[in-house]
Amino acid sequence: MTDLTRRSLLRTSAAAGTAALAGFPALAQSREITVTALGGVWEEAVRKSFVAPFEQKTGAKANVLLGSPPQWLSQVEANPQNPPIDVIIATPDLAISAAKTDLLDTFTTERLPNLADIPEEFTKALSGKGTVFDYGVAGITYNKKTVKNPPKSFREFVDRTAAGEWTASLPGLTYAVTPIMLIWTLAKALGGGVENVDPFFQAMARMRKNVVFWGGPNDFFNHLSSGEADLGIYFDGRTWAHVDAGADWMDFVNPSEGGSINALAVIKPKNAKPLAWDYVDVMLSPEAQLRFATMLNYPVTNRKVVYPDALKRRFTPWQQAHFPPYEEIAKVRSAWVDRWNREIRG
């Protein structure tokens, strides 16, 4: 080989190497996705249950972004052609709003084989633009030391609270989910619904003098542990988390009318990387969901998941609770807030 030829080859090789290196970041980026998680134990559960098996299965990387669903959706809305997030965890009402603005891809079993094992109710509720992957139930949590005979229904809860048998702790208006887990749930249990919340406001008028309000989930625990309240409307999963942390004086009842389902959905923005489908499919798999349920004490939606006996006793089957009509509630939510401010002021 002549020097000229060798130099030409080296130049060609160098150029090829430069081109390859120039293309490397793009290639590397195409093998990375950005997914979301809430903070604390939630983040740990997402990393162990979803991120690790996804990376093992695909050889790709999933970067975890902490924050909140409104923040993540705002980021996608700002750049829908090149969304900075590939998979988002969101409440169903936010997912429905995002679907209406055409921000989301449609979930199908062709793209997500494990979707076939998710009850179709959880996907239909989001118009096919995502699906619910875990949920909790808002029912009655009580202190076993002070409430020896807990109410078995919401109606009994209202009657005995009004009679002054105990002090109840209820979510206040500053808590975002209150219109769903309290106003709609009690109205429905007492014979009303989205179109008629009079039964709820009438019940509150009867109970008001024996009620305190909590602004955040930790407030509720403080109310019960301090003795300021004896029972209240709260989540099953958070109750069991407190029990596991040593508060074995707490217990939970799913009222006979059925508590409200408080769910989280997974959605994929349009134009997100195709690898996002692999990640979502892992999220919906029975193995990943069981690990997630075990870590967080909340039930999951894949019907193939078999819970250990300890979890099975705690979890409320979704068929024994009610999936809120998020879209209808959103239309009247402001009117409910106005009426609350006029009549309850809590």
UniProtKB/TrEMBL annotation:
Superkingdom in the source lineage: Bacteria
Protein name: Twin-arginine translocation pathway signal
InterPro entries: TAT_signal
BP terms from Gene Ontology: thiamine transport
Signal peptide from the UniProt entry: 1-28
Alphabetic keyword roster: Signal
Any GO MF annotation of the entry: thiamine pyrophosphate binding
The species this protein was found in: Methylobacterium currus
GO cellular component: outer membrane-bounded periplasmic space
